[in-house]
Amino acid sequence: MARKKTLIVVVGAGAAGLMAAIAAARQGPSKIKILLLDSRQKIGAKILMSGGSRCNVTHVRVTPQDYEGGPRHAVKHVLEAFTPTQTIEFFEAIGVPLVLEPTGKYFPATHSGKTVLEALLAEVERLGVMLKTGISVAEIKKTGDVFCLKGSDNHFEIAAKRVVLATGGLSYPQTGSDGAGLDIAKTLGHSIVRTTPALTPLTSTDEDWRSLSGVALDARLSFFESGKKRADRAGALLFTHFGFSGPVALDISRFVSGADPKNQFEIQASFLPSETEESLKKTWMRAIVRYPARLVRNFLTDEFSLPARFVSTFLRKTALDGSVTLKRYSTVSRGCLIHALLNCPLAVTGVMGYQKSEVTSGGVNLKEVKAATMESKIVSGLYFGGEILDVDGRIGGFNFQWAWSSGTLAGRSAAESIRRA
Ligand SMILES: Cc1cc2nc3c(=O)[nH]c(=O)nc-3n(C[C@H](O)[C@H](O)[C@H](O)COP(=O)(O)OP(=O)(O)OC[C@H]3O[C@@H](n4cnc5c(N)ncnc54)[C@H](O)[C@@H]3O)c2cc1C
User: What's the pTM value of the predicted model, to 2 decimals?
Assistant: First the structure.
């Protein structure tokens, strides 16, 4: 490729890069030259595969508390620059109306990620952004006020006034996010907060739990490191042949993968997440009066809708007898059973890894990025957007919202700075 004078280069055409290019083109002077590069020939893999190919675009309520990583005040600033309401309006305007599901998640009305990707690409084209695929950036250097971007074998060299780095993290590397952008950011002087897989299933060698493969129930998982509770998350838990999956397992996984290897960690499950020891005791006492002859194991399945397969495994594992009637069950056994239901240790050995992680925890240190513009505090004219940054959201559309918000802010600010120059 010949050397060109381009004003803004966006590296990475995932959710954040597409939004950055669109925002820059909408914001900038009409003759602004914007080049959007991606190493993959076919782009948008994550948009296509997300949300079970339905693409959970955003959530009805997005707060900084839905994210981990960089400072919350910075996350807040970025989310406020392009809110979920603006996201919904933006997609509506480019022909993708979103529908709200009872879970609070927004999906395209077509229930297809393809619609989202096609509409973004159509908007990129309409705005005259030059999209080049199969172009992998290996090096970025700045001399004076000009950036020079090079390919790995020097087969291209591109000059730019502003660069938006939106190369994603390390999750699902087969989609193109292989960490190259993190290395580039490091070479440019940025520190990288330790990266680990997040939103990934948990592994276990416990054959009892693994034998429940296919069983799902609501649970709260609490993560303890060196005996201290550091996090808890609630939602559906799915037992699998390798361990645990489902939203709650994925949500807690960042703490498991990020645990200090020197420390001991433990996961405890509450299999009745909306109950307390007190409320369970009350329900139990009422049941003794109403159904004294009911077996304990039937009480657990009937009263709390716990799956029968789960109840028999749980009782076997905790060595508690479920074949006794409620009336004859001793106070001590009842206390033990209630405690075990609400604080059951799960033998978790680790996480599935980047190949199965929906997002990366860690990345470019957010403290080194201006939250008002997404511009680097270290290299002027360099902007960041999306998962490359040290911000990871929980399941539910939060990671795309981060990509839309930070990408938009980065692109808008890059264009605005050219307009002002
Ligand atoms: C299976 C799965 C399901 C998901 N479901 C959802 C969901 O329903 N809702 C939600 O909110 N989030 C979901 N996520 C997370 C969400 O997809 C990501 O957080 C989001 O796509 C990140 O966008 P990004 O643009 O920052 O990075 P990416 O989408 O990873 O895009 C980065 C792009 O940069 C390119 N690139 C990388 N290095 C270079 C280089 N050196 N030169 C040129 N190009 C480069 C890559 O090819 C890639 O196209 C899911 C993720 C996965 C894996």
Answer: 0.96
Mean pLDDT of the chain, nearest integer: 96
Query: Is 403's C-beta closer than 6 angstroms to any atom of ligand 1?
Result: yes
pLDDT tens-place string over residues 303-335? 999 999 999 999 999 999 999 999 999 999 999
Ligand 1 binding pocket mutation candidate from 37, 46, 112, 187 (most atoms within 8 A of CB): 46
Residue 55, CA distances (Å) to 100, 112, 173, 251, 264 in order: 12, 7, 19, 18, 36
For the chain, domains (ranges, CATH) are 5-197+359-420 (3.50.50.60), 201-352 (2.40.30.10)
What is the Å distance from ligand 1's center to 366 Cα?
18
d(CA 42, CA 29): 29
Ligand 1 contact, 334 CB (< 6 A)? no
Q: Tens digits of per-residue pLDDT, 333-370?
A: 999 999 999 999 999 999 999 999 999 999 999 999 99
